[in-house]
Amino acid sequence: MLIDLFQRKISYLRVSVTDRCDFRCTYCMDGDMEFLPKKDVLSLEELDRLCNTFIDLGVKKIRITGGEPLVRKNIMQLFSNLGKKIGHELEELTLTTNASQLDRYAINLFNSGVRRINVSLDSLDKNKFKRITRAGDFDKVIKGIMAAKNTGLKIKINTVALRGINDNEILNLVNWCGEHKFALTFIEVMPMGEIGEKRADQYMPLTEVKDLIQKKYSITDDPLRTAGPARYVHCHETNQKIGFITPHTHNFCELCNRVRITCTGEMYMCLGQQDKADLITPLRKSKNNQLLKDAIYKAISRKPKGHDFVIKREENEQFVPRHMNITGG
Ligand code: SAM
Ligand code: SF4
């Protein structure tokens, strides 16, 4: 079992299976982002071995993320292999996706044992969607989301609140998600990586989002406290749960139960910190997983108490020098 120095039990692994993406969301990456050479990326067999080693060490939930996980070739092989463990050592296998390929893969995901997915959607306006994602096809994304819904996958929509961009769509999103029985979580933009524009201009505190929602809907705090970063409210009119991930206005680290691995086999113990552990060397050095397990234990003992994201309006903005597509949100 993996327990850190603050007695937090690590039972949740997020795996970025590729840094590549078919979108270039303005808050996530630069318009001309360069991706890693394919030779630096772990094979699917290596990712599978890493995941299985974490399962051996007590991880119960795995989320596949990226970049866009569904653009990775043969990715269903990984879902299918890990899916066989659900109901045994693994409690849940999930996915975070931009939905561009969901139309194609929804059934395979369901057949692998995936039951819930997170879909990132920041706008219901076709033109604005294009402006935010730079490359996304709105109709294809909606088709993908509906295919997932019809397959029986439970959907949570993740929306990054962006000042002056989608702040006039908050109520629309609440309403649309309510209609389709999708859960909805708003996220404050985090200062991850250089993006060619100022984070302070994008940043919209979720206190404002909540105020906007309250003007039209009656919401009450939901007592649900998961080990995740979101705090929830219940929206009475739409009978739906709305989450708020507020790294700036609320520190969410005290219950943190997760670690992340990148597609190059680096382990990050905290999304908002730079410390990392190399897992690729022990993975490749020996077929026996003991070296790998030792490296994981050692890294867990360095898991920091929390992140220290800050967005300040100043000339030289501070940011974590790593884009979100590397560690997968
Ligand atoms: N491509 C997939 C997607 O967009 O769902 C998975 C990877 S994406 C990096 C995971 C999540 O991170 C998405 O919900 C996205 O909106 C969020 N994200 C990316 N950059 C962010 C940032 N700088 N601040 C807050 N959230 C961010
Ligand atoms: Fe791609 Fe997801 Fe980043 Fe958008 S948020 S660019 S979809 S990795």
Q: What are the SSEs and their pairings?
A:
Elements: E1 12-16, H1 44-56, E2 61-65, H2 75-83, E3 92-97, H3 102-112, E4 116-120, H4 126-133, H5 138-151, E5 154-161, H6 170-180, E6 183-188, H7 199-202, H8 206-216, E7 219-221, E8 231-235, E9 240-245, E10 258-261, E11 266-268, E12 276-278, H9 280-285, H10 290-300, H11 324-327
Parallel strand pairs: 1-2, 1-10, 2-3, 3-4, 4-5, 5-6, 6-9
Antiparallel strand pairs: 7-8, 8-9, 10-11, 11-12
Helix pairs in contact: 1-2, 2-3, 3-5
Strand content: 15-25%
Into which percent range does the helicity of residues fall? 25-40%
User: What is the total number of structural domains?
Assistant: 1
Query: If you consult CATH, what is the topology?
Result: TIM Barrel
Terminus-to-terminus distance: 24 Å
**CATH superfamily heading:** Aldolase class I
* Main beta-sheet annotation: 12 strands, mixed
By DSSP, the count of extended strands is 12
Given helix and strand content, the structural type is alpha/beta
Write the element-wise H/E pattern from the N-terminal end onward: EHEHEHEHHEHEHHEEEEEEHHH
Question: What is the name of the CATH architecture?
Answer: Alpha-Beta Barrel
* Average predicted local confidence, pLDDT: 92
Bound chemical compounds: S-adenosylmethionine, iron/sulfur cluster
**Quick one: overall form?**
globular
Q: What is the alpha-carbon Rg in Å?
A: 19 Å
Q: What is the spatial order of strands in the main beta sheet?
A: 7-8-9-6-5-4-3-2-1-10-11-12
The CATH class designation is Alpha Beta
